[in-house]
Structures are given as structure tokens and as C-alpha cells.
Specification:
The protein has about 325 residues and is of the alpha/beta class. It has 14 helices and 11 strands. Helix content is about 45%, strand content about 15%. The strands form 2 sheets. Strands 1-9-8-6-5-4-3-2 form an 8-stranded parallel sheet. Helix 2 runs parallel beside helix 3 and helix 8 crosses helix 14. The structure holds flavin mononucleotide.
């Protein structure tokens, strides 16, 4: 499974574990990197000194490449980017915003920079700004989302840029990897699937809520304020929906939503907290070691890819 993405990162398999707030620390990132994928630390829920600890621990337990995900809404973006440069983190991915101004300095520090995009136009713009690859993330993803499905977005982005494209959103097993390769992507990023692993720091109640969920269990809130987020439907999400329906102000909505993810992911309150997860939750049936997710995904994709010809000619 060597291709443009494995070569770009210096990894064995084109599988990236998404950087996720309150869910992806050094244990998960290093387990994925040690298994041959690329593990990412989710900087969005870490103060810079906490992130530094995770980087140091990650370096201790793996000599494989790993990365840091930086959501652009983080109040510590400048400090986090400076820390990544100082620590010579091999890869930085960015989410939820425009990282253009950070790309050149990160690259000068020898860091591979991969932004998340939800449109072909944004992918082209970031290619011009020097991005090494992009993650095309469809609206079926967990967390902050765009408005185009993975199936329609990935080939559009592939046709629009000449840098490698990583597919994200709705991918949870080897079928997802094979399908993404067929769409022209050179790798996949999985978030929801990696939450349900032993090494993920999210509370067990959170993981079990994903395992229980079906493909229709998620819904999107926050559209009224321009920040759509996909979560598993629960009483809190229904209250959120009601607030939006009655035209609550942005301030009221933000106040209602603040701290909800932490409540679910750290305290395990999956009734009043927000359980961010993608539609692929319907495919996640068990909590397993992260390395097993990588190995199974690769094995399934390889078996499927070698059978594809016979599935067409029967
Ligand atoms: C619990 C959770 C937290 C997330 N946090 C972040 C984040 O901090 N930064 C980011 O760029 N994306 C974040 N995402 C999105 C993921 O990076 C990834 O692109 C997405 O989960 C892929 O879709 P999937 O959930 O269908 O695998 C998060 C997703 C989940 C499920």
C-alpha cells in the first residue's frame, strides 16, 4: 500500500487517525503510528503546555512520524504553531478555518502541512498557499462539517488540485479505504472509528453511545449560526434544535453549547453533553485496540481490491 501519501508522511499504510478534541492524546496517536498509520494529537482541547507534554510522550513511545491537528478557532493557534515548529513535529493538519498564513512558516521548519477542506475552491486556494496535501472532508463526518458529501466532494477535489488528497467522512473500514482509493484519494482519515478504541481518552459512555448508534442516529446543529456540527441525537441535541427553531440569538446558542463536548467525552454525560460522531457510527460495532483498526482496515481493503475485478466480470 505504498503511494503518494505513505511516501509524503514516511508511513506504511495510507490511514490517518483524525486529531479530535478531548479524544486523541499521545496514547492513541502513538498506537496508530506504531501500527503503521499516522496518529494525530488533537490540540483543540489542550493548552500549549499540555500539548507539549503529549508531544514529548509521543516521541518517547514511537519513533514513527505523528502529527498535531490544530483547529483554527483555537485561542492558542499562534502558540501551538510555534510549539509544533520548536518541537519539529513531522505533520500539522488544520481544521475549521483558513490556515494560509501559517503554511509557509511551518514548511520552512520542515513540517508537512495538510489542511482540511470542504470544497474544491478552498482546496485550490490552499494548494496555491503551499499545502502539501489536503483532507477532503464530507458532511457525513463527526464534528464540524461542510455541506457536501464525501462521495461528491472527494473526486471534485481530486480533479481540482495536483497535490495528494486524503478522504474523510463516513469511512470506517476497509471498504471505505478501497472506495476512497477508487475516488482518486491517496489515503483516508477516520475519526469516529478511532474514538471506539482502547487508547482513545473519551469516556466509555461516549464510546458505547457510538457503538449503540445506527446510521440515522446523528443530526446536525449549529447551522443557524454558521457552525454546523454533527452529533449523536440525545436530549441535549433536541434542546439545541428547539433553541435554533425558535430563533435564539447567536449568544444564547453559544452559551448553551459551551462545554458540552467536554461533558460527554470527559465526564461521560451522554444525555446532557454533546456526543460528536459521524454517520459511520452505524458501522462501528466494537471497541478494539487502535492498531487492530489499522490492521483490519488494510487487510479488508487489500482483499476487496484484489476481488474487485471478479465482482464486475461474473
Ligand atoms: C469527537 C470528534 C472530535 C473531532 N475534533 C476535531 C478537531 O479537533 N479538529 C478537526 O480538524 N476535526 C475534528 N473532528 C473531525 C475529524 O478530524 C475527522 O475529519 C472526521 O471525524 C472524519 O469523519 P468520520 O467521523 O466519519 O470518520 C472531530 C471528529 C470527532 C468525531
Amino acid at each position: 500500500m505504498q503511494n503518494k501519501i505513505t511516501q509524503l508522511f514516511g508511513i506504511e499504510y495510507p490511514i490517518i487517525q483524525a486529531g479530535m478534541v478531548w479524544a486523541s492524546g499521545w496514547r492513541l496517536a502513538s498506537a496508530v503510528s506504531n501500527a503503521g498509520g499516522l496518529g494525530l494529537l488533537g490540540a483543540g482541547s489542550m493548552y500549549p503546555d499540555v500539548l507539549e507534554e503529549h508531544i514529548v510522550k509521543c516521541k518517547k513511545v514511537t519513533d514513527k512520524p505523528f502529527g498535531v491537528n490544530v483547529p483554527m478557532f483555537s485561542p492558542y493557534v499562534d502558540e501551538v504553531m510555534a510549539l509544533c515548529m520548536e518541537e519539529r513535529v513531522p505533520v500539522v493538519t488544520t481544521g475549521a478555518g483558513n490556515p494560509s498564513t501559517y503554511i509557509a512558516p511551518l514548511k520552512r521548519a520542515g513540517i508537512t502541512v495538510i489542511p482540511v477542506v470542504a470544497s474544491a475552491a478552498f482546496a485550490r486556494r490552499l494548494e496555491r498557499s503551499g499545502a502539501d496535501a489536503v483532507i477532503a472532508e464530507g458532511e457525513e463526518s463527526g464534528g464540524h462539517i461542510g455541506s457536501v458529501s464525501t462521495m461528491a466532494l472527494v473526486p471534485r477535489v481530486v480533479d481540482s488540485v495536483s497535490i495528494p488528497v486524503i478522504a474523510a467522512g463516513g469511512l470506517g473500514d476497509g471498504r471505505g479505504l478501497a472506495a476512497a482509493l477508487a475516488l482518486g484519494a491517496a489515503g483516508i482519515q477516520m475519526g469516529t472509528r478511532f474514538v471506539c478504541t482502547h487508547e482513545c481518552t473519551a469516556h466509555d459512555n461516549y464510546k458505547r453511545a457510538i457503538v449503540r448508534a445506527g446510521e440515522r442516529s446523528t443530526m446536525v446543529t449549529g447551522r443557524s449560526i454558521g457552525h454546523p456540527v454533527r452529533c449523536i441525537r440525545n436530549p441535549m441535541i433536541r434542546d439545541f434544535e428547539e433553541l435554533e427553531r425558535r430563533g435564539a440569538s447567536e449568544q444564547e446558542i453559544i452559551e448553551f453549547g459551551t462545554g458540552r463536548l467536554r461533558k460527554a467525552a470527559m465526564e461521560g454525560d451522554v444525555t446532557h453533553g454533546s456526543v460528536m460522531a459521524g454517520q459511520v457510527a452505524g458501522l462501528v460495532r466494537e471497541i478494539v485496540p487502535a492498531g487492530e483498526v489499522v490492521a483490519r482496515t488494510v487487510a479488508e481493503a487489500e482483499a476487496l481490491l484484489s476481488r474487485l475485478q471478479s465482482m464486475v466480470v461474473q
